[in-house]
Amino acid sequence: MRKFCILFCAFGFLLFNSCKEFKEVQVTGVKSFRLTKVSANGIEGEVILGIKNPNDYGFSIYPSEFDITYSGMKMGKARLYKKVHIEGNSEKAYVFKLKTDLKELNLIEVMGMVSGGNIGKIEVKGTLKAGKFYLKKRVPVDFSEKIGLGG
Asked: What is the Cα 79 distance to its own chain's centre?
């Protein structure tokens, strides 16, 4: 009987504790965007996004991916490959790796973009997967900002 009472109290605690409102994660900006490798095989780079957790409790961001467009050119998908933990009421920058082949890109345009050092508009679209334990939520991200190549 004692075990049943403890189990019932623990279940009640979890039930009432989980009733807190979950505020959505916010992408606060593109901290940096740089190409690390441009070759005949493809492009590799990094997109560093600022992510803010407005909740009092921490949770994890699970592997997610975004479509990246820079100055009107589709650069491919940027991926977060491993789960990261975000503390409560915090904002940190996280690295998303960009890797694409040159099927959809014009190599001359890419080389001009790399050597030009111009400021362009970066667009990040996709879904960020966040959650805690078995509770996961997909947060849509549609963000654009003017930024120079190289951060």
From this structure: 8
